[in-house]
Write a structure and sequence with these properties.
- The chain is built from seven helices and no strands.
- By secondary structure, it is mainly α.
- About 5% of the residues have low confidence.
Length: about 140
């Protein structure tokens, strides 16, 4: 079962936020960790390394503004990671992290980008799958 942006936004206003997680996959299936790693590393798609550092040694000049992604699977659950990627502002309204799967509530959005998410549901699931491989174990 694939969840629409509307369905995810509805979940964000319900009891899932109280649990600080989106437990269900946005696509109904698990993501691909290799594709997720590519999204995290790509400075034109995910932009993750602009703020975060990650165990991707071939990528130089990684960020120091946000938490290191190394070991993140030991700190956060799959659902907690998913919520942070979908819309981190639900946990911290002052966050500088983009909401990768939200389409409303933004100011001054260029017409070409209105109503569009930064990442697709599949891309989010792929990133979550990759992040879940990053444990300290």
């Amino acid at each position: 079962m694939r969840l629409t942006v509307f369905a995810v936004c509805s979940m964000l206003s319900g009891p899932l936020v109280a649990q600080v997680a989106i437990e269900k996959s946005l696509t109904g299936t698990k993501g691909d960790p290799a594709r997720g790693r590519a999204i995290v590393a790509d400075r034109h798609v995910g932009l993750c390394l602009l703020c975060h550092s990650a165990p991707i040694p071939e990528e130089r000049f990684q960020g120091e503004l946000a938490p290191d992604l190394k070991g993140v699977a030991g700190r956060l659950s799959e659902g907690q990671l998913r919520l942070r990627i979908v819309d981190s502002s639900r946990l911290n309204p002052a966050t500088i992290m983009p909401s990768y799967y939200r389409t409303e509530g933004f100011a001054r959005v260029a017409p070409a980008f209105r109503g569009k998410t930064v990442l697709s549901a599949q891309q989010i699931e792929d990133v979550v799958a990759y992040l879940m491989t990053l444990s300290d174990r």
